[in-house]
Write a structure and sequence with these properties.
Chorismate Mutase Domain, subunit A, seven-stranded mixed β-sheet, Rossmann fold, 7 strands, alpha/beta, 3 domains
Amino acid sequence: MTLVALLGYGRFGRAFGDLVTEAGFHLRAYDPYTEVPEAVRANSVAELVAGADLVVVAVPVPAMTAAVAEIAPHVTPDQLVLDVGSVKVRPVAALEGGLGARIPWVGTHPLFGPLSLTLAERPLRVVICPNEVHPEAARRARYFYESLGCVIIEQSAEDHDRAMARTHALAFFIAKGVIDADKALADDPPPFVPPSFQGLARTMQSVRADAGHLYRALHQDNPFAADVRQALIEALVHADRKLTSAEVATAPESLAIPDLGTRSPELHEARAHIDSLDRDLLVLLRRRADLAARAGRAKRALGHGVLDASREAELLNQRRRWAEEQGLDPAAVDDVFQAILRLSRSVQRQGD
């Protein structure tokens, strides 16, 4: 793949286009509703897709069916079409209905937004939803996203939307409720808020940064979101009634959030072993930090800076392979070693 055609140049489209060009791909973009830089601008859908290896549909989910219908007459069987929507069941249906068996297509969801890219958060994760109509399309999409430095998760469209209803959509729903209930608190929380609210404040900040249109898409375009919302509402109503009932005076323990460890001796024992093992891990981290400091001194002697991007990339790839050998989730292990590398860089900078 060399030329990527991007249909849609909104907040996500712009950020995604930058990621594509930084990875060395040529980019062409078209959006009749917003300004596209002249260097990458196409003047029509036909011009956009002509000669492209990959066509990325980056439009709001409600506009997906119309967008696919617009590109369908111009794409060819040697091209790949994918979407980047935050829900998958309906976009996949739009791709299948508009392109069918003639044009290779696959549904994808980059689990990052413009804020994540601005903050250079890593790793970048992407869900790919393989389909039986074009099984090879998922492999091609994986190659593309891995070329961008992304970690790939494969799920069916239905499993993806169920997971997003319970996580992404639920986070937006809770944050919207807090914002609507106390806008002043959401806009300017006091500096002395406890850690329990700090986590919620970060969620509200993230929700706002992801743009308001996403709230509608996550709830109205995800077929599983309504049931999750209803379950939460019923749980909150039940909790509220319990707080105001006579039972509080006679049985205050009924309001406690149960500690799982007190309910299971086996769990209590397992946690004790985990605590012991974590102390051993910290000893190893101390040893690793000492070695990182030694490496930092060697770098300074060579006139080299702290960051060695090629070494870090090689290290992370190797750790992911080791994780697979141990039957561990490579993406989760990648997270662990990203944190360890931050610690190592910090130790090395202290020696500057």
